[in-house]
Amino acid sequence: MLKNKQQGFTLIELVMVIVILGILAATALPKFVGLERSAKISSLKGLKGSMQSAATMIHAQALIDGVAHGQYVDINQNATATNADGDVRSIYSYPQTAHLQRVMDVDGFTVLNNGEFRLNGVNGCEVQYRQPANATSPPTYTITDTAC
Fold it and tell me: Any idea what DSSP says for residue 3?
């Protein structure tokens, strides 16, 4: 007589594999849960860096062109420096708060008139730009990540 050879897995073997996969998932899950908050904070830091670069470039252009306080920096180099043209108003050679977004890509951020750039519109997950208060101070950048 021929012996039947076992084919496939027994129920106990399948249950053991499921248990092992469950244990692995339970130990790995906490590591992945914190990634969303880290990603949001990284987005804020990236936007802050973009703001600093944009403000520095506008500042340099204003100094090169000799733009006075309150005048517009011709960012599109078409020989007309006006608000209607999309140019940036200079506050002590730095961009005015409401005009900074004209030289930045702010996809995913809700921009408020007070210089807040909120990630996905969430209050408390934002970067704030403050234009200089006087000719001797630079602009300030503040990250708030309490609600990220």
Answer: P
